[in-house]
Amino acid sequence: MEHTRPAIRIPGKIAAEIGGKIVLGRLKPGTILDGEIEASDERKVSRSAYREAIRILIAKGLVQSRPKIGTRVTDRTQWQLLDPDVLSWIFAKEPPRELLESLFELRKLVEPEAAALAAERRSLEQLNRLGAALEIMARETLHTERGRLADKTFHGILLSASSNPFLISLSSSVTAAVAWSTAFKERTQRLRRDAVTDHVKVYEAIAARSPAGARAAMIELIELAFTDAIQIRRRAGVAKRRTRR
């Protein structure tokens, strides 16, 4: 059975609409958004709903609102790029190449060391939970929502098993990055390569309490995932050019 996503409230939908345009470069930094009255009338929503949407975007660093100036799109340096919502907006369409590369660079900095620590510090209960998530991934595959949820869970448990509170605090961001990049690959073109085997190597190294093995396996997993994403992005670009002809 597929998991049912909770309904998104109107302010969340408006924030996603505007936020998506910002992170994908359709609304450039410095752009002044329409005023509250005009924007709410255009969308046929209440002013309070639109104000709440703007507050969501302000909290995520995407816009600033100042008296007599209005609501202005901020520079990327101010965006909360690891916010799960912002990540979802980036991957809702085809993400910019530089953001995709930077996201995988971050994963490569964080997750291999987390895997190495997990190999040293994991408990039997955490190892069993990793194994259970892996079993679901193998059974359901990453073509299903349950399989992708298990993938996200696997990476979350691994960060928890590092027993490093600062790494654990990155869990929601890292697992969101994993989930959305996998969903993007699946949505754009069904994954041809079986990524579950990459996770098995990580699991086996953690089970064997091999920090070096876990680190190497996680680096390989991330590099292969990045290659998948770039190839899919390239094929999508070719298909788009053909459509224009």
In short:
The protein is built from 11 helices and 2 strands. It is mostly helical. The protein folds into 2 domains: 10-78, Winged helix-like DNA-binding domain superfamily/Winged helix DNA-binding domain (Arc Repressor Mutant, subunit A, Orthogonal Bundle); 95-244, GntR ligand-binding domain-like (Four Helix Bundle (Hemerythrin (Met), subunit A), Up-down Bundle).
Task: Describe the protein.
Helix 7 (145-161) runs antiparallel to helix 9. The chain folds into two domains: 10-78, Winged helix-like DNA-binding domain superfamily/Winged helix DNA-binding domain (Arc Repressor Mutant, subunit A), CATH 1.10.10.10; 95-244, GntR ligand-binding domain-like (Four Helix Bundle (Hemerythrin (Met), subunit A)). It has helices at 10-23, 36-43, 47-59, 84-90, 97-121, 124-140, 145-161, 165-168, 171-188, 196-207, 211-244, and strands at residues 63-66, 70-73. The protein has a two-stranded antiparallel sheet with strand order 1-2. The chain has 245 residues and is mainly α. A hairpin with a 3-residue loop joins strand 1 (63-66) and strand 2 (70-73). The termini are far apart.
Blueprint of the fold:
Elements: H1 10-23, H2 36-43, H3 47-59, E1 63-66, E2 70-73, H4 84-90, H5 97-121, H6 124-140, H7 145-161, H8 165-168, H9 171-188, H10 196-207, H11 211-244
Antiparallel strand pairs: 1-2
Helix pairs in contact: 1-3, 1-4, 2-3, 5-7, 5-10, 5-11, 6-7, 6-10, 7-9, 9-11, 10-11
